[in-house]
Amino acid sequence: MSSSRRQFLALSASAALASAASAQTKAAPLVKTKPSPPGTPPSGPYVLDPLPYAPNALLPHVDLLTMEIHHGKHHQAYINGLNTALQGEPGLAEKSLEDLLGGIPFLPEALQTPIRNHGGGHWNHFFFWNSMGPAQAPGIGGDPADPALAAALAKDFGSLADFKKKFAEAATKRFGSGWAWLILKTDGHLAIVSTPNQDNPLMQGLVPNADRGTPLLGLDVWEHAYYLNYQNRRPDYIAAWWNVVNWPTVAQRYQAALAALSKK
User: Fold this and answer.
1) Is 71 left (phi over 0), alpha (psi -120 to 50) or beta?
2) What does the alpha-carbon distance between residue 241 and residue 234 come to, in Å, rounded to a whole number?
């Protein structure tokens, strides 16, 4: 995972945030340049990282064509929109994506909606890809092996089964497009929340304070995430998705979030 400006981190409080961009070069002379070929993505600080596994690795739970379109088309479109929004804004382009999303109400008004939608879409999808893994790989699906995470889930939700039931309910009942999240709140307790569109629990001033916290696990319930394979059967998609949840990554995020809380 890169720590450059072109590759942001998947919200680990213990990991270093992206380093500041290098100083802007002097303005180029006023000469005519060849226009970019049609369809060329706008340049900017963000690029689409490869999936952390082969696009067919989540079969049969998530199909190949959905992964190719979801990652290569939808996620790329969010990155294009984010880079477009940041053009001519070198000060903002130097900030980490987490800082941008956490301070949207303080951004110039014209940039608030593009960064909310496209920046949120980029962050959410990067987080989502890394929340999953091939079902046959160790630690993927089933129950979390990490004793601290398992104990926290049992303490705050009653049992792992109860957690999955409540999480699935939040994902199923999200009207229209959006996300379901497992978060760690500032009081040290786990909570399940749901956000519309590309909002996430980092967004101060946009997401209710009760729904804000450090994301540990997120599920995309936009129709483009499942419709080719499951059509309108969102509950079937959610049930299948548990087979590809990357519990080791969730446990690492939990430990990093706890460590960050302990320093406050």
Assistant:
1) alpha
2) 10
How many angstroms separate the CA atoms of 117 and 73, rounded?
A: 16
Across-strand partners of 194? 180
- Among residues 201, 72, 48, 71, the alpha carbon closest in space to that of 128 is found at 71
**Is residue 199 within 8 Å of 116, Cβ to Cβ?**
yes
Summarised one tens digit per residue, pLDDT across range 68-125 is 999 999 999 999 999 999 998 989 998 999 999 999 999 999 999 999 999 999 999 9
Residue 192 belongs to some domain of the structure: yes
Residue 27 lies in a domain: no
Q: Which residue, chain included where needed, has tokens 């000469």?
A: 31
Domain count, the chain: 1
Is residue 177 in a domain?
yes
Task: Domain of residue 77: give its range.
Answer: 60-264
Residue 249 lies in a domain: yes
